[in-house]
Design a protein that fits this description.
By secondary structure, this protein is of the alpha+beta class. Helix content is about 45%, strand content about 25%. A hairpin with a 3-residue loop joins β9 and β10 (about 130-145).
Amino acid sequence: MPTFEVEDAMGLGDFLKKQFVDVIDWVDEPGVLAIRYPMQDREIQNGGQLTVREGQVAMFYNEGQLADAFKAGQHTLTTQNLPLLTAIMNWDKGFQSPFKADVYFFSLREQAGLKWGTPQPITVRDKEFGAIRIRAFGTYSFRVEDVAVFGTKMMGSLDRLTTADLDQQLRAVINQAIATALGGSDIAFLDLAANQQALSEKLKASVDAAFMEWGLSCRTFFVESVSLPDNVQEYLDKGSQARVVGNLDQYAKFQAADSIKTAAANEGGMAGIGATAAAGLAMGQQMAGVLGGNGGGGAPASDPYEQIEKLHKLVTIGALSQEEFDAKKAELLAKI
């Protein structure tokens, strides 16, 4: 019976001891921006130790009101280093008894390697193509800059806040900045690839200004890709092909130069260059005669069927696409 009373007394002592917190610290976790230290039914012991690691800030709150903040280092919690909290609580015993406060840890580390992208194409007015839809993708990074603002606006009374929790909100800001920047840009789409660095810097400034409203700072921002929808890109590619084939004189010269390079690499070496170059030049002039009427000085073929036959040969050797052949064929047959 006495043994039971001793054990019961020890159990009660252990229970009471668990209500006091002597050591407060937090080890950073990847992607975690802030946590509220578990203090339910617990009080901080006078003289307790607070450890704040590099890249962290610890904030003490009393009834939702910010009281004191601690940067990296080891701190002994007394009235001397908790003056604001002491004044708020009006302690007259100099912390001789345990005290209650909410403790939050905030990570100041840069959250890097985050992805952004336009969920839907953004319609912009391009000075060359008119109204087009553009998609963009890239990466960015941010960090908590103003802990007080971030704690009030973003953390609130949450127990834990991660980058994933903010992902949708931050992406919305980025997409708005992109729509504004691209919509008001005087840079043609075809020049955007050469100006991605300037575009990245412009967007970073806009995103950073929006992030600061939440106590965050945008550390890096990169535009990695700007593209058109697949169907628009297909028409753009066709236009490029038409412009290349349209200059038949240059195409003929290109064919001759390419033939020389091919002949030099093949068996027979330079001996076959003359014939191969002539064949390449002849093919280019043949295309000029078929597609352009007289490109390069050649007279146009008078027989539509003969022209169609020549076009088919060009398709066979890969000089024309099937779509281009079908279009030219229909045009020639319409003249019969």
